[in-house]
Predict the 3D structure of the following.
Amino acid sequence: MSQVEKKSEQQQEVVIHKIRINLTSTKVKQLENVSANIIKNAETFKLVKKGPVRLPTKVLKISTRKTPNGEGSKTWDTYEMRIHKRYIDLEAPAHIVKRITQITIEPGVDVEVIIAA
């Protein structure tokens, strides 16, 4: 009987996963709020964490003519979109990750959770 109990105890050991949470947004303030909430939740569970790591901002530009016809002076408008990205690395069991990611995510922030072994 004692061998059966030892086997069941070994099976109940918690498997720790490496988790990367990618955050993407065009609005910095909302992105920082979401990352701060995730970090705060990770600290309450006393997890090993790294981040938020700020990645370089992507700037997408489009230049277009102002006038709809070809007449007049050649004036141009330039539009740009800035895409900000952050990632947070955590080491935690899967059931705790579910609790951490159950926060209110502000509109305009994309969250991607990647679990590696």
User: Anything to note?
Assistant: The mean pLDDT is 87. The radius of gyration is 23 Å. The chain has three helices and four strands. The first strand starts at residue 17 and ends at 25.
